[in-house]
Amino acid sequence: AAADKIAVGALRFTSHAATFVAYERGYFKAEGLDVEIKFFQAAQPIAVAIASGDVDFGIAPISGGLINLADKGAIKVIGGVLHEEPGIDGQMILASKKAYDAGLTAPAALRGKSFGITQAGSSFHYVAHKIADKEGFARSDIKLRPLQKVGAIIGALKSGQIDSWSIVPHIAKGLAKGPTVEMIGKVSDYIPDYQVTTVFTSAGNAADKKELVKRFLAAFSKGADDFNAALVDKTAGDAAAEEMVKLIHKYVYVSRPYEKAAPSIRNGSMRINKNAKLNLTNVEDQLAWFQSENLVSKTITIDTIVDASFVETY
Amino acid sequence: MADNRAETVPFRGGGFKHKPAVAVSMMVFVVLILFWEFGSRTGFISNLVLPAPSEAFTAFLQLIETDMLWKHLGASLQRLVLGWTFGTLLGVGVGLLIGLFSIVRAGLSPLVSALFAIPKIALLPLFIIWFGIGEGSKVATILFGTFFPTVIATYGGVDNVDRSLIRMGQSFGLTWLSIVRKIILPGALPAILSGFRISASIGIILLVAAEMIGAEFGVGAYILLAGSLMATDQLIAGVSILSLMGLTMAWIIGKAENYFLKWRM
Amino acid sequence: MADNRAETVPFRGGGFKHKPAVAVSMMVFVVLILFWEFGSRTGFISNLVLPAPSEAFTAFLQLIETDMLWKHLGASLQRLVLGWTFGTLLGVGVGLLIGLFSIVRAGLSPLVSALFAIPKIALLPLFIIWFGIGEGSKVATILFGTFFPTVIATYGGVDNVDRSLIRMGQSFGLTWLSIVRKIILPGALPAILSGFRISASIGIILLVAAEMIGAEFGVGAYILLAGSLMATDQLIAGVSILSLMGLTMAWIIGKAENYFLKWRM
Amino acid sequence: MDLQLNNITHAYGDMAVLEDINLTIGGGEIVCIVGPSGCGKSTLLRLIGGLERPGSGEVLLLGQPPKSSLNPLTYIFQDFALLPWRTVEGNVSLALEDHPLSKQESQEIINDVLSRTHLSDFKKALPRQLSGGMKQRVAIARALAVRPSVMLMDEPLSALDSQTRELLMEDLIDLWTRESFTAIYVTHNLQEAVRFGHRIVVLSRRPGRVREIVKIERELDDRGGDNAELDEVQHHLWELMRDEARAADRELLNG
Amino acid sequence: MDLQLNNITHAYGDMAVLEDINLTIGGGEIVCIVGPSGCGKSTLLRLIGGLERPGSGEVLLLGQPPKSSLNPLTYIFQDFALLPWRTVEGNVSLALEDHPLSKQESQEIINDVLSRTHLSDFKKALPRQLSGGMKQRVAIARALAVRPSVMLMDEPLSALDSQTRELLMEDLIDLWTRESFTAIYVTHNLQEAVRFGHRIVVLSRRPGRVREIVKIERELDDRGGDNAELDEVQHHLWELMRDEARAADRELLNG
Ligand SMILES: Nc1ncnc2c1ncn2[C@@H]1O[C@H](COP(=O)(O)OP(=O)(O)OP(=O)(O)O)[C@@H](O)[C@H]1O
Ligand SMILES: Nc1ncnc2c1ncn2[C@@H]1O[C@H](COP(=O)(O)OP(=O)(O)OP(=O)(O)O)[C@@H](O)[C@H]1O
Ligand SMILES: [Mg+2]
Ligand SMILES: [Mg+2]
Questions:
Q1: Distance between CA atoms of residues D48 and D149, nearest Å
Q2: Residue from the list C129, C224, C225 with its beta carbon closest to the beta carbon of A52
Q3: Based on C-alpha coordinates, what's the Rg of chain D?
């Protein structure tokens, strides 16, 4: 039979490596999937694109937009991708040098400080509130600054216009190396089992094309296994790691020469959940947080968002 | 006259004239909204594609109930008023200089034309660096957006002041300042005011762009949030608020025109 | 005549006239850029605040060298041409209908005014749902942005066609279609063309907004990427490309005006 | 073909403009209509030409217009009403294009009327290149092209400077002497009226009524130079109208 | 105070407009300047009033203007040149505001000139509410307010319809009869010229030169009605100018 044509939405980030590996190494083909990768500038539009039918599968953090789209019956979360886990560098909390010098040396001191986020309802927003909760001050004591774009946040942090931010390790490390930014903590201390990104598909696929979804997840997981082995667990040897970096470089940091891109790719490698396991507990926590912030309707249940029939959840 | 047939002259005028039909206008709006509501209720228009007007209205009511409307509106209006006031004041000033002095014109008017067309959203990152993420960059965005059209309207207005009036002023030996104050300024006023119309609507459009930068409150911020949450009902509500702001501004400027330009019809 | 003093009549004309001073215009540009370059080199203008013009130029050269310029430009031009062409075609069509038929005017013109002023960035999330993330929504953004001003320019043009010419046509017993084709259309053409000027620059401005929607290539996408990377040199290079596109469009429309409106001065 | 106006009364909204106008115009006759500003002269002409419908009363065409006439009632307007985007030739041709004429027939008509108005050298000129007098000549050529039974002229000379007016007046008289067309000639200018009119209809202030109809027997081509009889008629007309003209002049417009 | 023009020659770029104009205008005299379109009449008037500098030659004021004159050389323009945003009163006051006059003095002058031009009832009217004739009266009042030694009038009547023109002509003659101001009166209209001019200067086509100066002895207030002498002068002027006027008329503009 002819292969099923599907489109997968992706960002040019290392965290989407599983898709690239599965594509490059023919795992999708082996499952009878004719995949077209569509690239996006931000995660949010991938969810919208699934709703509009432009894309079949995508990877993105749980966001207010994603939940609302799920509520409107457009999409379903079907698995987990990135996951914070002890022992592996996870997202880090940063402070501007100016704020650091003024005493912001630990997340506990964030009370009354400003914190950069892209938009209300983004993962950054969630992180900031989780820190407040754990440190025991009111969420409103952290002054959130929505700046739309990661680049804008970086600029604002460097120039001391915002005091703090949290971000994935490879960007965090890069920034902290410079003179204007200091690292003050880890997100995993505040959200131990953070299900950072998830894989999702249209509600139609999840309900009517279960077979197709399963085949996609199988291929995707194979890609994830290769990636984890090569760059996260480093059990596959140096040559395999090198080869993996080269493969990823076809998609990520393409405008930089390989020598410059490679360290960033290696630094940015975080574990991708085996078999797309999904931490449902954390997803529920995220949903509860969205609801407590009035960002999504209180009547939405976890079943509206997640179809747990495809992968192992915990 | 042999032939005694008498015929009325055939009518050939008519057409190409507009009878105002307010009833039709109202009806189109009402029918459209009813159809839209009906479509949404029956599911003919998917909720994903477009929320029902009633939902958008509910979102609007919610804004009022939670007192957020005034917070958003207040924040936006403050930015708009500040940015627009300074933008137009500066714009009128520079426009007058360009209109009155050849040297200034030669120096500035190509610059103004070059900068006018630059999309302000593209410059947001620079604005953040230049003016910070506080109110500064938001006001600056609107200021920049309103400055250039005002300059162009103003010096266009000065250029279009009837030369024969200026010549008349000179022929009566009026001083340079008298001519500028009593002839050129009032003569350019209609153009300046119609420039205000344009700059006001540009200002409102730029609210959305301006409030991309670290704004917690503001109609633009509300719309952006609604967009990122895919809360289309709130999105439509927010956009309607902008529309109403635009109508209000146009109405105010219309009043100002009536007042300042009553010498015209 | 007892008093025999003879005096020349005092000169009181002069002033309020513009001598074109192209040299000054050029000089202002050159001096400004040199000053900026100098400021950047000496560190007087921090690199964070504004990159040196030479850096922006280097970024531009890099675009050429890497052949990315044509990719970006090609993608943007395609969107612009498609969106603008359909937007203006539809706009002229609807504008003519509004201009010619009272009923259509009553129904549509308030709707057009209401929708005209809505900021298109605010609608991006809806556009994505309606038109997808492919070229559709990008072209649609530009189409929407250019449609409304064209409608308004067109029916304004039709309204402003000299009524005495229409009356003349009727008095010679011309058919309705003849009057529309031979009098109203050519008479509205100047307004339509100047509407094209406006819609072209709106189209270019909207490129940035349109390419916010998942565009890999395109001048707008390039600028957005540069902004998010705070690569101010690339940002300035990209913005300059937009400016050049604007100038080119204006030039083309100027040529079209010269061709179609040679009957005017 | 004669024209007959029966009890024409017209109003715009509440404003009565014309009241009870009765008039018959016969073939080859030039009837001048004079009256103070705003008394409804142009309105009357529009009613006659069928561009507007009279509030009450009727405008009748007595007898068939000749077959050859393409547009029996043809206007010449004060503002020339030339299409600025068409050449002289194109402007004349406009009047012919909706009629079933062969290209050659049209071309012949155009050449003929242009030569009769001394415009043959200006065929390809655009209106903006022409002086006011030349523009009005083009309008006259265009009117001649459709072989009208009656020419309706609304102040055809009043947009021209006085020397051009003088020149065109001579041309018009020439033309009439050769072809003796029928015309209704609206004007403000009493000198023109006594130069052109076989009969001069004097209207009162708004609402316009017929105050007097003055007949001048002398032939048109015999009215040039100094002519005491015409001076007298003109003087009489001016006496009739002066007070009303003054009152019209001193009226405040738009409230 | 007399005005003397010595060898005035003027050109715009390559285009010679005036050539070697010599003329002296004495007190209380009205000099009419006639000539075909574009021969440089308006230019000449601008040179006389100091609004433009002559290419060569000079315009001399002989003798001191009277102390009371606020603006010795004062224009009246064809297009009235009223500020549309000022009332009748305000337009007159404009001419006085840059002079050191008390409020009361100004008010007196304004009231005086408005009553002399029969405008007292229209003090508060805006230009848009006035007919053309009234507008020109306001411009005349404004000119009178600065007590000019010489009035420079550039076709003051040619924007008016012919009845209003007739009325204003009567008013101007009245005014001159009472105050015998000095004036240079540019016009196209030979009838006006023979009604107003003590001398009539006929200019040739561009470049304008003085072709002839016609003197009319009869008093201004005796020129009304039918008047064979004036008709003859007018006829003579028209004979002088007809061919040039025709040539000017048939010239293509802007290439
Ligand atoms: N279409 C119209 N609608 C309303 N009022 C009109 C219209 N046309 C003319 N009028 C009014 O009717 C009156 C007569 O107008 P008309 O143009 O016929 O006068 P006229 O005698 O030609 O004046 P003029 O000498 O100034 O040309 C004027 O008061 C004018 O304002
Ligand atoms: N400022 C100027 N620059 C260049 N050319 C000019 C200027 N003013 C007038 N001219 C030209 O000089 C010539 C004479 O113009 P002017 O206005 O003096 O003529 P005129 O006799 O007043 O004509 P009209 O009878 O049409 O009023 C014309 O050809 C005109 O185009
Ligand atoms: Mg009329
Ligand atoms: Mg002149």
A1: 13
A2: C129
A3: 18
E-state strands within D13-125: 15-25, 30-34, 56-62, 73-76
Mutate to test the pocket of ligand 2, among D161, D162, D164, D166 (most ligand atoms within 8 A of CB): D161
What is the average per-residue pLDDT within C184-213?
Answer: 91
Q: Among E37, E41, E251, which residue has the most ligand 2 atoms within 8 Å of its CB, making it the best to mutate?
A: E41
Global confidence as pTM: 0.88
C18 min Cα distance to partner chain E (Å): 16
Nearest to D241 among E133, E163, E226 (CB): E163
Render pLDDT for B98-118 as a digit per residue (tens, 0 to 9).
999 988 888 888 888 888 878
Q: Is the ipTM of this complex over 0.85?
A: yes
Give the contacts of E180 (CB within 8 A, at least 6 positions apart). Answer: E28
Count of Cβ atoms closer than 10 Å to residue E148 Cβ: 22
Distance from C-alpha of D115 to C-alpha of D162, rounded to nearest angstrom: 24
A51, A145, A151 ranked by CB distance to B133: nearest: A145
- To the nearest whole angstrom, how far is the Cα of A225 from the nearest Cα of chain B? 33
Q: What pLDDT, on a 0 to 100 scale, did the predictor assign at position C2?
A: 46
The CATH number assigned to the domain with range D2-65+150-253 reads 3.40.50.300
Establish whether residue D42 lines the binding site of ligand 1, counting it when its CB lies within 6 angstroms of any ligand atom.
Answer: yes
Contact B13 D60 (CB under 8 A): no
- Among E12, E52, E185, E202, which residue has the most ligand 2 atoms within 8 Å of its CB, making it the best to mutate? E12
User: Domains in chain C, start-ordered, CATH in brackets?
Assistant: 63-264 (1.10.3720.10)
**Measured from the CB, is residue E12 less than 6 Å from ligand 2?**
yes
Burial per residue of A248-273, b for 16 or more beta-carbon CB atoms within 10 angstroms, e otherwise: bbebbbeeeeeeebbebbbbbbbbbb
Q: Is the minimum distance from the CB of E41 to ligand 2 under 6 angstroms?
A: yes
CA distance C32 to B111: 10
Q: Which residue in chain B is spatially nearest to D57 when comparing CA positions?
A: B8
pLDDT in tens, chain D (255 residues): 789 999 999 999 899 999 999 999 988 899 999 998 889 999 999 999 999 999 999 999 888 878 888 999 999 999 999 999 999 999 999 999 999 999 999 999 999 999 999 999 999 999 999 999 999 999 999 999 999 989 999 999 998 988 899 899 988 998 898 888 899 999 999 999 999 999 999 999 888 999 999 999 988 888 876 678 888 899 899 998 888 888 888 888 865
Distances (CA, A) of B19 to B47, C109, C148, E216: 38, 13, 23, 59
DSSP string, A2-31: PPEEEEEEEESSGGGHHHHHHHHTTHHHHT
Judge if the beta carbon of residue D17 lies within 6 A of ligand 1.
yes
* pLDDT at residue C157 greater than cutoff 50: yes
- Decide: E42 in ligand 2 pocket, CB within 6 A: yes
CA-based nearest distance D183→chain B, Å: 16
Chains A and D touch (3+ CB pairs under 8 A): no
- The residue-averaged pLDDT of A26-54 equals 85
Q: Write the DSSP symbol of residue A118.
A: S
Mark D182-219 as b/e (b = at least 16 C-beta within 10 Å).
bbbbbbbbbbbbbbbbbbbbbbbbbbbbbbeebebeee
Domain range summary for chain D, segments of one domain joined by +: 2-65+150-253, 85-148
* pLDDT score of C176: 93
Cα E252 vs. chain centroid, distance in angstroms?
A: 28
Neighboring chain D residues of E246 at a CB cutoff of 8 Å: 167
**Nearest Cα residue to E121 out of E93, E88, E153:** E88
Which residues, other chains included, contact E50 with Cβ-Cβ below 8 Å and sequence gap of 6+? C9, C10, C11, C12, C13, E59, E73
Kindly report the protein residue whose alpha carbon is nearest to atom 10 of ligand 2. E12
Q: What is the pLDDT of residue D254?
A: 67
Is the pLDDT score of B1 beyond 50?
no
